[in-house]
Write a structure and sequence with these properties.
Layout (H helix, E strand, L loop, with lengths): L17 H13 L5 E3 L4 H13 L3 E4 L15 E3 L9 H9 L4 E7 L3 H13 L3 E8 L7 H10 L3 E5 L2 H9 L1
Helix pairs in contact: 1-2
């Protein structure tokens, strides 16, 4: 290619640690003199790094953060790409209501609390009766007790908000 240092790409690995991410973004802005950044993976990391990009007035495009609270802090240099996690179940719940389904079970990971928080509001808005509303700690892989509650309640719809590492064992069980 052509062009000078203004066109070079810089890559850094935060090792999935928010403190490391904050420090790396600080370095990218103050030492590497980047004009804009792509945000890290996930809402907690993006939230931490956004404090740095806002302080330095540098644009951050956040391709992998979906918790709306990140955008409720008056930040001016942050662009969201994903739909908010709170709205992620809207299509499912709308479809259920339009097909006359009446009851819903909501199971959510504390790693993704916004999903079930949004689902609860959407279900109530659509007039669905919430017959199970359970949360589980991040990283849970054993769901038999929760699944027994769901089976006993016989909901018309089941919504699960989880990470892939949680959703796969949940689905298998």
């Amino acid at each position: 290619g052509h062009g000078g240092p203004e066109q070079r790409e810089t890559h850094r690995d935060d090792g999935s640690d928010p403190k490391t991410a904050v420090s790396l973004y600080e370095t990218l802005i103050t030492e590497d003199k980047v004009n804009a950044v792509l945000g890290p993976y996930g809402s907690p990391y993006t939230d931490a790094v956004a404090d740095v990009t806002e302080k330095h007035r540098k644009l951050m495009v956040a391709p992998a953060a979906g918790t709306t609270s990140i955008w409720e802090k008056g930040r001016r240099y942050l662009i969201m790409v994903l739909s908010p996690l709170e709205a992620s179940t809207e299509g499912t719940i709308d479809l259920a209501a339009r097909h006359g389904l009446k009851t819903i079970a909501l199971i959510g990971s504390l790693a993704r609390p916004a999903i079930i928080k949004g689902a609860l509001e959407l279900a109530r808005k659509q007039g669905l009766e919430v017959v199970v509303h359970e949360t589980f700690p991040a990283g849970t892989t054993e769901f038999s007790a929760m699944l027994n509650k769901v089976k006993a309640a016989k909901p018309d719809v089941l919504v699960v908000g989880a990470t892939p590492a949680e959703a796969i064992p949940f689905t298998r069980q």
